[in-house]
Design a protein that fits this description.
Layout: H1 4-13, E1 33-35, E2 46-48, E3 58-66, H2 76-85, E4 95-99, E5 105-110, H3 112-118, E6 130-132, E7 135-139, H4 140-145, H5 154-169, H6 205-212
Parallel strand pairs: 3-4, 3-5, 5-7
Antiparallel strand pairs: 1-2, 1-3, 6-7
Helix pairs in contact: 2-5
The structure holds zinc ion (ZN).
Residues 13, 20, 22, 164, 168, 174, 189 line the site of zinc ion.
């Protein structure tokens, strides 16, 4: 039943334990990030294709789309904004997030079939979320109720799925659980398997340090297999 692409997608974003929650892709056109030289105000921006070597804050401009209208998803945009601006999040790695209607990146909440379509060639099986090029797509059902494998609360799940997918947008790959009882890296595919780790919506210091080098291509396209970031 699984297509080759589906298997690749599973490997790319779900981890090895029979699922994952998101995928990323390829096939996108130029994905620009707006970076701000440290000496200027944040309103003066310079478009770049990657953040390679950028020493100062890197501005990531995004817009939010919610393709659902039920009460359970009503606060999607506000939770995205709060999570991205949270001092426990990717701001620690020198990223400044700005919401704008004409932003190059989109953080979308959609129903399973839409996410499935938008995440191609990753296969989200109608339930996983993904990042592919300039798009982060969160599946609405998971936003509503998390997953059976998640041992934290729903608020933390929502923060985790945003930080995980935006971590992919920043160029990060998956990480493993260091061992039972340790705090999960945010880049562990926690939606599907915690491997004994404690649920965690925020990047660990090692993940912050990796992202803070600003040498990863932003908004990567489709990446077959499951590239890993190591400590
Ligand atoms: Zn992932």
């Amino acid at each position: 039943m699984l297509t080759a692409l589906g298997l690749l997608a599973l490997a790319a974003c779900g981890g090895g334990a029979g699922g994952h929650q998101l995928a990323r892709d390829a096939g996108t056109t130029s994905t620009s990030v707006t970076s701000t030289p440290p000496s200027t105000s944040t309103s003066a921006t310079v478009a770049t294709t990657t953040s390679t070597g950028t020493p100062g804050p890197v501005v990531v401009r995004y817009r939010v789309e919610r393709h659902a209208d039920d009460a359970a998803t009503a606060d999607f945009a506000s939770v995205v904004d709060a999570t991205l601006h949270d001092p426990r999040g990717w701001t620690r790695a020198g990223f400044v997030f700005q919401q704008a209607d004409d932003a190059p990146y989109t953080i979308l909440l959609g129903e399973g079939p839409e996410v499935q379509q938008r995440c191609r060639p990753y296969d989200t099986y109608g339930k996983y979320s993904c990042q592919i090029g300039p798009l982060v797509a969160i599946t609405a059902d998971r936003w509503r109720s998390a997953t059976p494998e998640w041992t934290g609360d729903l608020t933390a799940y929502r923060q985790m799925v945003i930080d995980h997918e935006v971590g992919h947008l920043l160029g990060l790959h998956h990480r493993d659980c260091a061992g039972p009882g340790t705090v999960a890296p945010v880049m562990l595919p926690q939606s599907t398997e915690l491997h004994g780790c404690l649920p965690n919506p925020w990047p660990l210091p090692a993940e912050v340090a990796r992202a803070a080098r600003h040498d990863l291509p932003l908004a990567p396209g489709y990446e077959p297999g499951d590239p890993r970031d190591t400590p």
